[in-house]
Amino acid sequence: MIFLTVNHPGREMLLHVAGGILETLGLPTLSESERALSARHGHFPSYADFELPIHPKVATFHGLRFCGMEQDYAVFTRRLRFEEYSSRYIDCRLNGMEAEFLGYLQLV
Q: What is the Cα–Cα distance from 18 to 29, expressed in whole angstroms?
């Protein structure tokens, strides 16, 4: 996944940006072993408890292999498919609670 959640880039995106910065500075880019070592040492953020679902039609349009209609995502203490996540979002909006959406997700 390129982004783990909104505004939170994943490992591949961070490595891509780091490589571009190193190249711009005229420095050697990271080798595969350096990239793997950095990943093992936890230099990348983890959002294991929350993954932002992607609409299955958007995934199909962009050719994303990691998600589809049956893909489930970590949403705090449960795993939800896009349909389940979006129904909670709609319920929250209909009840005027969009500002508290993350708290709402943790409760329902």
A: 8
